[in-house]
Amino acid sequence: MCAEFINLTPENLGAEHLCCIIRSKKPHPGVEAKRRWLAGRLREGHIFRKLNAKVTVFVEYAPLEMAWVPVIGDNYIYLYCLWVNGGEKGKGYGKALMESCIADAREQGKSGICMLGAAKQKAWLSDQAFAKKFGFEAVDTTENGYELMALSFDGTTPKFASNAKRMEIESKELTVYYDFQCPFVYQSVERLQEYCAENAVPVSFRPVDTLEKAKALPCVFNNWAVFYGGKFQTVNLLDGAGVKRMIK
């Protein structure tokens, strides 16, 4: 396979598309929010590697110590997202991106790579069956079926922070934790705010805007997490129909 991949850098961040939501002219608020988020992360070792074309083919990862997730471990890489969409599937791009992530981790002398998964594949999480083909396996779990998947190079393993396994908060109203690592989050927040206002659903939005807040979250998290009735519900982005089902 002959393909050119490029990494986003502080120098090209403003000009390159971000794969998930591709716009050629009109600015997209979610994409611009993601650019601002990335601007602070790239200098921390965050990698956004993509096919050099206007398609959805990319991988995104960061040193675990700097990753905005309640996962802890020494010398690991955290894999946020690996996505190949539409007509680009089946061309070997996913394999090439995963292999480049693994090679990068080894070159940096890392102990391994980890990612969020689940006993049953969930939307908005990278394909764990695909990851297992490269040797990823579950190394920690939560009571409600989420898993920390890891590919260990040296026998060590990361784990969920103890606070991530609480899965409870004091507030009983609909509560959403979010950051702008995913460009779809911006519009999801707007639409959820609108639905809750129109339907008199009490809701609290809690932006996760620092690394410290992310590491201290009371649940698993990849950029979004929902609570209702004081109990953790999902890491899936939520719309009005999902809220209606949840509060029923």
Can you give a write-up of this model?
It is a single chain. The chain has 6 helices and 13 strands. It has 248 residues and is α+β, with helices and mostly antiparallel strands. 36% of the residues are buried. Strand 7 (137-141) and strand 8 form a beta hairpin. Strands 1-2-3-5-6-8-7 form a 7-stranded mixed beta sheet. A 4-stranded mixed beta sheet has the order 11-10-12-13, covered by helices on one side. A two-stranded antiparallel ribbon has the order 4-9. The protein has 2 domains: 5-161, Aminopeptidase (3-Layer(aba) Sandwich), CATH 3.40.630.30; 164-247, Glutaredoxin.
Short description:
The chain has 248 residues and is of the alpha+beta class.
Derived from helix and strand composition plus strand pairing, the structural class reads alpha+beta
Count of all domains: 2
Helix content: 10-25%
Catalogue the unreliable spans: none
Query: Biggest sheet: strands, sense, closure?
Result: 7 strands, mixed
The H/E string reads EHEEEEHEHEEEEHEHEEH
Name a few traits of the molecule.
alpha+beta; Aminopeptidase
Topology:
Layout: E1 5-7, H1 29-41, E2 47-51, E3 57-63, E4 71-72, E5 76-84, H2 93-107, E6 112-118, H3 128-132, E7 137-141, E8 146-152, E9 159-160, E10 174-178, H4 185-198, E11 203-207, H5 211-215, E12 224-228, E13 231-234, H6 240-247
Parallel strand pairs: 5-6, 10-11
Antiparallel strand pairs: 1-2, 2-3, 3-5, 4-9, 6-8, 7-8, 10-12, 12-13
